[in-house]
Amino acid sequence: MVWRSPKSFIVLLHGFSLRRRVALSLALVRLILVPVIALAVYYLFAMASIVDRIVSVDAPVATNAERASIEMLDARRAETNYFLLHDPDDIARNREALRQLEKTIQDCRTLQPQEKPTFEDLEAQITFYRSSFNHAVDQLGESNMPPIESLRQIVRTYQRDLDDVLTNSPRESNTRLIEMLRARIESFDAEVAAKVEANDPEIRQTSRDLATASQRIINLSTGLESRSWQRVQRDHERARALLIRAEVIGGIISVITLLVSIWVSFTLPRQVVKPLTELKRAVDHAAAGNYEIELNVQGDGEVVELADSVRNLLAHVREKKG
To answer: Into how many domains does the chain fold?
Structure first.
């Protein structure tokens, strides 16, 4: 009988069982995913909040503020036409423009209550302008018309100025175009007011009050528009910074996830697959007819229990052979 030395195989599995190791790996993956999901949700809501403020508050307020300036200019144009022609329709147009102006200001107040001092000042100026215009209507009525030839000259000059503005409009920005129109209107208003005051000295102060109040309203509206667009710009910069921060943090987390996955891919096979490989070699050796096998079993868990069962089976086979 040929004596064979026992073949030794080591089945070593320190620490947790295989089930616990798999559970630990899944828990580690979830632990990495939790901050990723939390950060994604945070940046999503932060970005949505910024975009919602731009779309729902700042941009509409800026647009309404620009509209308020235009509506005030409409009221001024109706006022000027009334001073020229004393037409009751111009009174109605002036009052309708003021009504639209008040509605626009109220819409802005609803969207941006932090501008309360500006809105209160606007409303006070509108009230003062309305009372001054009503006083002018009571004073002028349908008489005391200025000389028609002088007014025609003023209108012709104003028309030439507007034609020049429209000719150059394609080369000008919207802001510059509005400024040029305002300058032409103010010049026209000044000439008309001079004619009215020359023919009716009693209305001189009222005309000046109207000009002062209307200019104050336009300045306040322009300031509100400017501040609103500045807020839009700041929100845009915040959104851009938030996006950059999200990309940086996302990149860091991706690198950490990659390193952890590499570590797991090397550690888990070495600790779990290697004992299984050793056990398979032992079984293959026994299947070849060599039952003189020593299994050095250490640790605990399912693999170690399986190795114990194989060792008991081999011991039972050896007894049968003996």
So the answer is: 2
